What we know:
Elements: E1 3-5, E2 16-18, H1 37-49, E3 52-53, H2 54-63, H3 69-72, H4 85-88, H5 90-106, E4 112-118, H6 124-135, H7 137-140, E5 144-150, H8 154-165, E6 169-171, E7 178-183, E8 189-193, E9 204-209, E10 218-223, E11 226-234, E12 242-246, H9 252-256, E13 266-269, H10 271-287, E14 289-298, E15 307-310, E16 313-315, E17 325-327, E18 330-331, H11 332-338, E19 344-350, H12 351-357, H13 360-369, H14 374-388, H15 390-394, E20 397-403, H16 409-412
Parallel strand pairs: 4-5, 4-9, 5-8, 9-14, 14-18
Antiparallel strand pairs: 1-2, 3-11, 6-7, 7-8, 10-11, 10-13, 11-12, 14-20, 15-16, 15-17, 19-20
S-adenosylmethionine binds next to α2 and α4.
Amino acid sequence: MRTLLRLKRVMPEVRWTMWQNRSCSNSSIQRLESNSSIHKHLISKITATGPISVAEYMREALTNPVAGYYVKNDMLGAGGDFITSPEISQIFGELLGVWCVSEWMAAGKSNTFQLVELGPGRGSLASDILRVFSQLKTVLGETDISVHLVEVSPKLSQFQAECLTGDNTQPNDGDQPVYRSGTTRTGLPISWYRRIEDIPRGFSVFLAHEFFDAIPIHKFQRTEKGWREVMVDIDPESPGKLRFVVSHSPTLASSILIQKDENRQHVEVCPEGGVIVQKLANRIAEDGGAALIVDYGHDGTKTDTFRGFKGHQLHNVLEAPGMADLTADVDISYLRKMTGNEVTCLGPITQRSFLKNMGIDSRLQVLLRNCHDPSTRAQLIHSYDMLINPEKMGHRFQFFSLLNRGRLAQYRGMQKNTAPLPVAGFAELDMQ
Ligand SMILES: C[S@@+](CC[C@H](N)C(=O)[O-])C[C@H]1O[C@@H](n2cnc3c(N)ncnc32)[C@H](O)[C@@H]1O
């Protein structure tokens, strides 16, 4: 099927063509009827207690337990609002699978190996990675491998279960930390959680692909009186409408979240993302392992990146909350700062460089050599171009990694630049 799609967040003024949906899409999946209950709820709340922060607005719109965007919708793919790299090509997940195994090997081949994905969407990335794990069975040997998914959306967790297990899962009662569990199609135990802290301790490789961009941000504006928080209020000219206002006095967030040396005029800060990355760093430091964070991000340079997507079009963020995707570029310099020196941070490096370092060109050649159908060949080449072309996703998306500090201890003792960094995907970087 040839479908016109607008790539989420990637040069939204250009239309991209996607030729085929990925394996884990389900043609029976329908977008749920949208409703405006969050809009009504927010109007009542602001009327009663005054303007709310952008973070509160974003949290309600995306993850309100009853009507939040991620809770209710299947937003990925042709019938949805955006498309992501794992949905575009199997090669993406395969190369990340090789990265996971390579880090497990480099870290000393722990007897247990937890693959943890934050915000797995439809499950396509984990599915491609698990296929690689099966193909590398002889390398992984008798290792006790398990899969752990952190997903806030019951709806998406059902799609993930279908994709990864063929629906071989049991939902667990009420408020248990593991709300669903089962066995993957490849025979591995798999569990679903709402929070990272509920995942068992142990050597883990964490993956977060387009996860941090969905975590609520606070917005701040520099004014003559100092930093002030941008809030969401009701438009007095049009009482059913929402608008941004700048707080008259400092808020708790504006007092504690702005760095002393900040020189931008407008800043977005994601403290919840900071807490999550601290938890990852802490676990990697104590239990071993690594994390790979992939998102469209910047190194503390961008200002106003908060935006909405609906039906592959840019969408006013204050309209129809709960019915459109809301997102903000990830400030990787902030995440790095929040790791607090507990781990070694690598990157950011562009998606193009990472995938090239991981051998995407050779993988494409192998697939093309084994494929004689002209339309599938064309699709493979088209997807490859989407992933690595600097004007498409190649430079927009950044890879950032956290490693246990012991992982590069030997390298740290060597003269700088005498050898490429011995971490797959990041070879050309200097260690930070
Ligand atoms: C933009 S989608 C990305 C999906 C997938 N990683 C991909 O790239 O195709 C964001 C994912 O994060 C999940 N998510 C959003 N906020 C979350 C939160 N606070 N806790 C756990 N999962 C969350 C969403 O339900 C969804 O699965």
